[in-house]
């Protein structure tokens, strides 16, 4: 009698390839946002633009990026993950490439507005892709991995952009980075599929992510499914106390980020008396600290979930802890030694990175059908920090004293921590009775 040996087919790991694609997407996002900072001195000289005009060019991205967050989320819920990212990446990459052919102020304003418009759905789409491919117990780690792309980009991408600018000029810099983005948009469209439509994923992995709470996106690929997203749905995501807790928290996280993106080098040079060379070396350290922070937070959070710790602890504690650590930025007001200043900045930005798994709450709290819209509102409110924070800091520091500005940042991050403690409450999905009007809306 022959012995029958059962051969078990091993579960595929396609989802890890997907999160790597998101990581690359985030790096390209930030490459196309930051390339103008490298090119700016050469642009202003060649096109004879004054500082006011350059300031307007810098800000043009943020206005449309923020304004179109909610419409971007609506488009995401209509088109789905694959098409939204492909169109968005191609759009902002074309806008980047065309900046290499601009010959005046108006052209730059128009293209930077276009860049912000096409980047608007990027992070809501990242969040929804992660929610589609990863079970809840692995989602924080996925968010941490792709979010770390922004810190890696900011820490290491700038030297690469400087190299491109030196060899090919500022016009060549825009053209090359634009071509890279367009190429990635094509690859995304060719390679990406939602899990239920992927030919690479096997049944074991599909069952694993489905049973683990993944949110499958069937709308975009099934033309027989009609989206029911409407005005009442916007009201739902704007009315929820839980969601407002994460909206305020995201503004706090983004506030610290935008301090480092805008004022940090100026603070070191003008208020701490460092040279540009030394500033360039020291300014990268907080970004590396943030990179370590976001990865540590994501893996720790998922580890706690795997060990049976509740979402209230596993998800909320890293964010709250990170925001509280970010308040340590105020310590720089009380030291004179440069090394101590950088130490406080690194602790603060490590905390900011540790709190940067906030996107996981969008997929955990929002009604499944409205993850895209909720992500749009979430990123819109966070994105307003790119407009508000640099202006407020400039106002607070105009008298020659930067201490009030750092105190302000510390206060904002403290408010963010309190919003997670008192507004978010228990981590569970908001329930909506679809057959009833908004009066039937229930918030967990």
The helix/strand series, from N terminus to C terminus, equals HHHHHHHHHHHHHHHHHHH
**Poorly predicted tracts of residues:** 1-8, 218-226, 435-444
Beta strand count: 0
Percent of residues in β-strands: under 5%
Helix and strand topology:
Blueprint: H1 14-47, H2 51-67, H3 69-79, H4 81-98, H5 105-119, H6 122-133, H7 136-191, H8 203-211, H9 231-239, H10 241-262, H11 264-271, H12 276-306, H13 311-314, H14 316-326, H15 338-354, H16 359-365, H17 371-383, H18 385-396, H19 403-424
What keyword list fits this structure?
single chain, 444 residues, mainly alpha, 74% helix, disordered N terminus, disordered C terminus
Question: Can you give me a brief rundown of this structure?
Answer:
With 444 residues, this protein is mainly α.
Structure description:
With 444 residues, the chain is mainly α. It is built from 19 helices and no strands. The radius of gyration is 22 Å and the shape is globular. The N and C termini lie far apart (59 Å).
């Amino acid at each position: 009698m022959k012995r029958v040996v059962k051969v078990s087919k091993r579960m595929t790991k396609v989802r890890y390839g997907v999160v790597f694609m998101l990581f690359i997407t985030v790096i390209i996002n930030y490459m196309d946002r930051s390339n103008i900072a490298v090119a700016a001195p050469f642009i202003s000289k060649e096109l004879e633009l004054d500082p006011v005009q350059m300031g307007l060019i810098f800000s043009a991205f943020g206005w449309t990026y923020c304004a179109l967050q909610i419409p971007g989320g609506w488009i995401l819920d209509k088109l789905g993950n694959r098409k939204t990212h492909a169109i968005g990446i191609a759009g902002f990459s074309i806008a980047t490439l065309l900046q290499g052919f601009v010959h005046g102020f108006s052209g730059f304003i128009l293209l930077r507005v276009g860049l912000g418009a096409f980047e608007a759905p990027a992070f809501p789409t990242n969040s929804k892709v992660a929610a589609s491919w990863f079970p809840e117990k692995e989602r924080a780690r996925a968010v941490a991995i792709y979010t770390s792309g922004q810190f890696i980009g900011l820490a290491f991408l700038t030297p690469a952009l400087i190299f491109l600018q030196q060899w090919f000029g500022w016009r060549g810099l825009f053209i090359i980075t634009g071509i890279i983005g367009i190429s990635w948009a094509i690859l995304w469209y060719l390679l990406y599929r939602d899990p239920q439509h992927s030919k690479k994923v096997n049944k074991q992995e599909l069952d694993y992510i489905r049973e683990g709470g993944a949110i499958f996106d069937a709308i975009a690929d099934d033309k027989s499914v009609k989206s029911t997203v409407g005005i009442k749905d916007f009201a739902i995501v704007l009315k929820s106390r839980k969601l407002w807790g994460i909206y305020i928290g995201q503004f706090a996280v983004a506030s610290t980020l935008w301090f480092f993106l805008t004022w940090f080098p100026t603070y070191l040079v003008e208020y701490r008396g460092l040279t540009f060379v030394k500033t360039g070396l020291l300014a990268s350290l907080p970004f590396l600290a943030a990179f370590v922070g976001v990865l540590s937070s994501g893996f720790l959070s998922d580890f706690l979930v795997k060990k049976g710790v509740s979402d209230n602890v596993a998800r909320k504690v890293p964010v709250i802890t990170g925001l509280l650590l970010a308040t340590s930025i105020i310590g720089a007001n009380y030291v004179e030694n440069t090394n101590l200043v950088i130490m406080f900045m690194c602790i603060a930005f490590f905390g900011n990175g540790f709190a940067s798994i906030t996107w996981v709450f969008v997929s955990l709290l929002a009604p499944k059908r409205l993850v895209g819209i909720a992500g749009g509102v979430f990123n819109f409110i966070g994105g307003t920090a790119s407009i508000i924070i640099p202006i407020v800091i400039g106002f607070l520091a105009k008298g020659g004293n930067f201490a009030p500005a750092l105190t302000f940042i510390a206060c904002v991050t403290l408010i963010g921590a309190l919003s997670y403690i008192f507004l978010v409450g228990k981590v569970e999905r908001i329930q909506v009775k679809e057959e009833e009007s908004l009066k039937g809306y229930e918030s967990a």
